[in-house]
Amino acid sequence: MGRSIGKEALEMIKRFEGCRLQSYKCPAGVWTIGYGHTEGVKQGQMITQAQADAFLIMDCQKFADYVDNPSYVPITKSLNDNQRDALISFTYNCGAGSLRTLCKGRTVTQIAEAILLYNKAGGKVLAGLTKRRKAEKELFLRPIGETSSNATIIQGQEEYKMDTIRRGSEGKLVKIWQIIVGVNPDGIFGTGTETATRAFQKQHALSVDGIVGNQSWKAGLKSL
Predict the structure, then answer these.
(1) Residue with the larger pLDDT of the pair 115 and 126
(2) 43: number of Cβ within 10 Å
(3) Beta bridge pairs of residue 87
(4) Residues 6 or more apart from 29 whose CB is under 8 A from it?
(5) Cα separation of 95 and 92, whole Å?
(6) How far apart are CA 124 and CA 171, in angstroms?
(7) Which of the four pLDDT bands, split at 50, 70 and 90, describes residue 154?
(8) Active-site annotation, residues
(9) How far is 180 from 165, CA to CA, in rounded Å?
(10) What is the pairing mode between strands 31-34 and 120-121?
(11) How many helices (H) and strands (E) does the chain have?
(12) Which residue has the higher pLDDT, 126 or 72?
């Protein structure tokens, strides 16, 4: 597994994708929930905001891995965190094929300019895509440590009602937690995941028991 998704990438994707906590059918007729999550989604399903955020982390990891792959981004090793996050958002929206085309044979400066070209659907320029590409370019060019001039703060009470997982647990939530603590997301809560969990809990002044309950989930999602 490559590096985890950056906070800037997650916030940008959230802002432009939008979130729905009740399942719905997308234009292709697929049951969808959260920020476009489809795996295992059923009619009438409801999730919390924390669950939507967790699904987003899991779904985005594959796009982060594309950005970290030199066959898609030849200059990936020289990217700073903002450049990487901008390309993750771009890839989430445009796909890995477009990422490869965008970055092939281009310098950092050329990539920044070319991002703006991907603002069409069906051959027509869309205002929403134009706005997103401009935001991605702005992030791509932003020096590390500076904040966006038009950044927004999302306020409100978040719910953290995730199932408790521990050594021996398996499945989707285990993969999400493994991404958060930076271990191989194989979906099996073994000794490596337990060790990483204890280290995470110690770092965040939580009860160090190796069990991922409500407080560990809350700290994990807020740490991104």
Answers:
(1) 115
(2) 9
(3) none
(4) none
(5) 6
(6) 41
(7) very low
(8) 17, 26
(9) 14
(10) unpaired
(11) 9, 4
(12) 72
pLDDT digits (tens, 9 = 90+) for 87-100: 999 999 899 999 99
Q: Is the dihedral of CA 5, 10, 12, 18 positive or negative?
A: positive
Q: Does pLDDT of 111 surpass 70?
A: yes
AA identity, residue 107: T
Task: Return the structure tokens found at 169.
Answer: 């647990």
Q: Mind giving me the DSSP string for 88-145? A: HHHHHHH-HHHHHHHHTT--HHHHHHHGGG--EETTEE-HHHHHHHHHHHHHHHSPTT
DSSP 37-66: B-TT--TT-B--HHHHHHHHHHHHHHHHHH
The whole-number average pLDDT for the span 90-112 is 95
State CA 131 to chain mean position distance. 19
For the chain, percent of residues with pLDDT exceeding 90 = 58
Q: H or E stretch including 160?
A: none
CA distances to 133, 134, 154, 163, 187 from 113, rounded to whole Å, are 10, 10, 29, 44, 39
Cα separations in angstroms, 19 against 117, 119, 170, 175 = 26, 22, 26, 21
pLDDT digits (tens, 9 = 90+) for 155-183: 344 455 678 999 999 988 898 898 889 88
Place of tokens 């999400």: 176
Residue 113 pLDDT class (50, 70, 90 cuts): very high
